[in-house]
Amino acid sequence: MRNQTFISHFLLLGLPIPPEHQHLFYALFLAMYLTTVLGNLIIIILILLDSHLHTPMYFFLSNLSFSDLCFSCVTMPKLLQNMQSQDPSIPYTGCLTQIYFIIIFGAMENFLLVVMAYDRYVAICFPLHYTSIMSPKLCVSLMVLCWVLATFHAMLHTLLLARLSFCEDNVIPHFFCDISALLNLACSDTYINELMIFIIGGIFSVIPFSLIVVSYVQIVCSILKVSSTRVIHKVFSTCGSHLSVVSLFYGTLIGLYIFPANNNTVKDTAMAMMYTVVTPMLNPFIYSLRNRDMKRALIRVLCKKKISL
Length: 309
Known about the structure:
By secondary structure, the chain is mostly helical. About 75% of the residues lie in helices and about 5% in strands. It is built from 10 helices and 3 strands; from the N terminus they run E-H-H-E-H-H-H-E-H-H-H-H-H. Helix 1 crosses helix 10 and helix 2 packs across helix 9. The longest helix has about 35 residues.
């Protein structure tokens, strides 16, 4: 038998920040976390309160904001706690739980971007049939499908991780429990885990991205047939926010997992920070700053509050 010990906790190395700059970066990350929470909460509340935003597009956007909010809450509080207390440990069960929620909310964002691309495709290519196609029943069904697929994805990888054995080495060179880092620490066979990541992860990444590309190819082909500059401008303003979020999400994902840096933990950490912290923070700004409907909804809600006061 191999010499194995039961690992009760892991040690997160965190970010490569010099001790003299710890307080500065703690304040920065705290501000980023609060901005993420506040920004996404504002979008969710606005969509709930303003009846003008009770449309399929904003229904999906509110779910995207909820996913971003939860995604940030999975990693940032632990990072801030570790920076403040200088205690990098995380329990074994806490590590698996963190991985589960990282996967489920990361997958949710992936699927929601596909659904939102389909919504824009129907709105632009079939405007007269938009209401009948994007019915409330279909919207709810698409959301349920997203949650089911994301839950299956997260549960599969978490259960496969739970069957592994870990030896003395329990140091994770990251600021959160990363699935690839845990596989490197395992002293049992990880072939099934890696195979499922390659197959299921590949399917859940390539197919959604391909569907988004196909949707926008159809959108571009549709607007090229229109000679009106005003219509073209409206289409691009409508799709601009979604394209910005897609570029940000898949850009960091490709840099982190498809083209990883060999033995470059600083680069990997920076890309992971973009993926888990910066993207959820920027999404509310992208949608609110580029979207006139959101600005008008904010004004209407604030005016109602002033009148009631």
